[in-house]
Structure formats: structure tokens, C-alpha cells
Amino acid sequence: xxxxxxxxxxxxxxxxxxxxxxxxxxxxxxxxxxxxxxxxxxxxxxxxxxxxxxxxxxxxxxxxxxxxxxxxxxxxxxxxxxxxxxxxxxxxxxxxxxxxxxxxxxxxxxxxxxxxxxxxxxxxxxxxxxxxxxxxxxxxxxxxxxxxxxxxxxxxxxxxxxxxxxxxxx
Length: 170
Description:
Alpha-Beta Plaits, globular
């Protein structure tokens, strides 16, 4: 189990504060969901989805996390990803959301928070991937998962490379 301690020097100018302790389970994945402001369909157009994919790929390179699955829906995004090796996950996601916002005409673009579920078993990994890949069908966007270009389904089922590098789990 990884342990991160954050220490602050105590001086007259900066009084002592409690040390932050963050426990990071090793090699666990995160299933993240974040939504557009007021759940509006800001990610409906192909151009807006392409911007998101491009920024996701650049942040994946910058922060060193792996994407194991994703789906872009009109009003929200799901990611199955690893923990960044050095920076906190929250910093990587904030950077991703900030850059997408900067490149988009809508403001504010995102709701401030995101949902983070720690995926700790093989069964949960498969469950979350299936949920993501079936989401466009369940929401009536496509008839089959492979028809939705904006997900990792094609990387898994057809072994196609896309804008986002996907590290397949199987």
C-alpha cells in the first residue's frame, strides 16, 4: 500500500498545520464520472468529443496514467484509469477539465466535482467496462456499442487504435 505524507515547515510566517496523509492502494483503478455544467449536452458534437479525446491523450502523456476504458456521452464522461504515478489524481483531472473548458465556447463547461469509484477486483473492472461500453446503447445513441466512435469499445472488440491510447485489460 502506498503512503503519501505531506509536510509543512513551521515558521512565524506560516504556522504549523496538520500533515496530510493519503493512502493509495497499489495498482487499483479508478472509475470516474464527471458531468457538464447543469448536465447540458456540451459533448454532443463530434468536434467537442474530438477536443475531449485530444486533451485526454495529452494529459495521459503528461501525467503518466493509463486509460483502460472510456466513453464520451453528450452530457458526461466515464473513465477507467490508473492512478498517476507522481501527481494526485485530482490534479490530473483538474488539468484535463481546465483545458477542455479553455478550448470550448461554453463556460462554465463542467460541474466542479467528479465521482471516483476505486476498482479493486477483476470482476469490478469488467463490470465497469461493460457499463461504459453499453451506455450509448442504453441511452439510445446507437444500436450497438461498436457504432459509438467515442469510447474504448472498438479498442477492445476490434483492436482499433484511436486518438486515445487504451491499455486493454484483456
